[in-house]
Amino acid sequence: MKIAFVLDEIWDSALTSYSLRIAQNLKKHTAVLVGVENSYVAKKFKHIHTIKALRNKNPFKTFSGFNSLKETLKNINPEVVVTIRGDATLLACLLKKTLNFQVYRIFGEQKTLKTPAGCIDKLILPCNYLKSFILRAIAEKTVVFQHFYNPVFFYSQEGGKKAKERLGLDGYFVFGAVGRFDRVKGFDMLIRAFAKADIHNAFLVIIGREEGIKTTQLKAIAKQNNIEDRIIIIDTKRTDINEIVNGFDVGVISSIDSEVIPRVFFEFLQTAKPIITTDVGCLKEVAKPSFSIVVPPDENSLADAIKRMALKANELKEMSTAAINESNQYRLDVDSLFN
């Protein structure tokens, strides 16, 4: 079966990543990628069909995007078209009868699905939490495909040791976080919680990029809380990020919202990290007591979890083993979605 994946987001989002993992892990079916010109996927992959943008305030450009999608799908001639956004879904629905394909929608947003039930042949959700955002009329067409894994980071005990030495953290208990510097990631709350926990001989490392919140703002919060000498913020591209993540003793996810496709959670699993996580979005579904502590997204609860995890220092090896064993549970049969 030939399956066209229309990935019309410009950026490298969690939803695009989730969809790519499905496409890249197909074994019995052929995946064909379709991306918008100058988008993340168009730049990343050589063998990809490019189309014009599907969303535009100018109706003539929107119509041009529709024609671009139409001609591309006509050339691919797929049995199934997979979409990730409402624009591509609606346009695919207008073409499905003429071009004779089914429409599968991957839905990974924390808002009500507005696509008409009759348009979609199958709805794919990354977790049960999102069921509350879909209409009952489409429930029978819905399948929850729990996060399967295709990691960016890989476990390296030796690499972690080298990173700690390189950063001057050898001998310290390191709490680490990864993600864009955005309000929903709760890094400001994490810094205050780490200060409140006041763990002796501990460091906090945050890796990410500026996106709404500046590095200087995070550093200012650290200074206000008198922990500027116990925090490292990395916001530049480096070749040793995998080693640095492996150097964390505990991975922390401090998100206050979203997390319907929690990529960082699974990266921490793959690198054998015990995890402290808030209970937002899908996180509470995938966290297990054997390797994680789950708390509400507030400063006091997070500080308490940091203290509790520091007291579990003798249990970290067992928790690490449980984490990496859990990651193996998510290597699922992707082809089953299209049977």
General description of the model:
By secondary structure, the protein is of the alpha/beta class. Helices cover 36% and strands 18% of the residues. The protein has helices at residues 14-24, 40-44, 59-76, 86-99, 157-166, 187-197, 215-224, 241-246, 263-270, 283-286, 299-311, 316-327; strands at 2-7, 30-36, 49-51, 80-83, 102-106, 122-125, 142-144, 173-178, 202-207, 231-234, 250-253, 275-278, 292-295. It has a seven-stranded parallel β-sheet, sandwiched between helices. Strands 10-9-8-11-12-13 form a six-stranded parallel β-sheet, with helices on both faces. The relative contact order is 0.12.
Count the E strands: 13
Radius of gyration: 22 Å
Q: What's the order of the H and E elements?
A: EHEHEHEHEEEHEHEHEHEHEHEHH
Please, what is the oligomeric state? single chain
Structural class per helix/strand content? alpha/beta
Read across the widest sheet, the strand sequence of neighbours is 3-2-1-4-5-6-7
Low-confidence stretches: none
Number of DSSP helical runs: 12
| Approximate shape | elongated
**Major pleated sheet:** 7 strands, parallel
Could you tell me how far the N terminus lies from the C terminus, measured between alpha carbons in angstroms? 10 Å
Strand content: 15-25%
- Helix content range: 25-40%
Mean pLDDT: 94
What is the compact description of this entry?
With 339 residues, the chain is α/β, with parallel strands linked by helices.
Break the fold down into its secondary structure elements and pairings.
Blueprint: E1 2-7, H1 14-24, E2 30-36, H2 40-44, E3 49-51, H3 59-76, E4 80-83, H4 86-99, E5 102-106, E6 122-125, E7 142-144, H5 157-166, E8 173-178, H6 187-197, E9 202-207, H7 215-224, E10 231-234, H8 241-246, E11 250-253, H9 263-270, E12 275-278, H10 283-286, E13 292-295, H11 299-311, H12 316-327
Parallel strand pairs: 1-2, 1-4, 2-3, 4-5, 5-6, 6-7, 8-9, 8-11, 9-10, 11-12, 12-13
Helix pairs in contact: 3-4, 6-11, 9-12
